[in-house]
Design goal:
The chain has 190 residues and is mainly alpha-helical. Helices cover 49% and strands 11% of the residues.
Length: 190
Amino acid sequence: MAFSEAIKTKVKEMAHFKCCICQNLFVQVHHIIPQKDDGSDDIDNAAPLCASCHDRYGDNKVKRKSIKQMRDFWYKRCEKREMSPDYSSFALKIDDLYNCFQKVENNQDIQTNLLHEITSSFSDYYHNQAENIHHSGSLQELVTLSGIASTGDTVSAVQGAEIKIHQCNNCGSYTFDEDAKFCSKCGKLY
């Protein structure tokens, strides 16, 4: 008689489908004590062996005890592996996490570049405004040219709105934007 399919499957699964001697794949389930020597067809007499190891050790009466010991040792190692974390899935999760961080980092780079472009655009605007002020000769000339009446640090537009004028302490340029936080010409903070 031969091993049942259920026993063969169970033995292969317990051995992770590897030979209990050399750990090669493509195992068959063989009798430790052959049937001709009254070996049973139960799971305790079954060993997962590759064809090479079966040919080399299978019908050797002296090696039977060693085959059983190697099988039991291999089963314990396989059982411990099952209880250990799945390192391949852990590695995949680490890769996913790394890719996620890369996307965040790339998004931060994109946001930083966008912020830089916006800041640069505002700086260009303020610089152009400062150039116009600088080329006008004086604040009075600029006020006269633009139709604005001067009253100290603020000017009133012809329509009656008041606008705050900033003069940079560093380079002396002017800006009409009351919310300006930095000089458009030299970049110093107000």
